[in-house]
Amino acid sequence: MINYHLANQEIAIRLLIAAVLGGLIGWDRQRKEGVAGLRTHMLVCVGSCLIMIVSAFGFSDIMGKPSIVLDPSRIAAQVISGVGFLGAGTILFLRPQIIIGLTTAAGLWAVAGIGLAVGGGLYFPACIAALIILIILSLLKPFEKRFFKSTRGKTMTLFYNSKLISLGQIESILMKYELSTSEIFIHSNKDSSSDELKVTFDYNSVPSKILSALDEFKSTEGINEINSQI
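Above: the chain's sequence. Below: its structure in token form.
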């Protein structure tokens, strides 16, 4: 007879493994100031693990009875769509014309998969997947910076009134948040009161500091419009 019961010790082990694996990935995102950090990734992984355990073993009291059929994947499958909404929240909460958080959203989705694997007792695939995800998030970043410099730079474009604010004042705000630039483009329009300044930041610039600078520029007199890509 098939045993549909899972011992309490095994349940605890699976939940703890899920917490550790989710925490490793969450620590990486927290260190890089991702939208979702350590606790969020741990919660997603542990929650997914628990749902998988419930889906596979939560109905052991009725299994084996006539006309009872169980599909262990039915409840667990809802995790994928549920995490999709959570991942979307890490992207859509940002301000207009600023798109960041895609990597974090993908990481949350992957962490949910790890939690499901651990909940199903697939420890080896879960650990290997966690290792691969950490390599992708940490070790591939230098290669991405090297080979995709022209398309992945963090940029900010300011349309400003040079009569109300000077380039020196703009530079002071950037220096206030320790933002270093790799490229600056200035376009002066004689037929308009709005000049254009496009700044490309270094790749080690922290997104949260760029956002703080954007906030200050929005409240600065003389700044007419701001476009940015982070």
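The chain has two domains: 8-147, 155-229.
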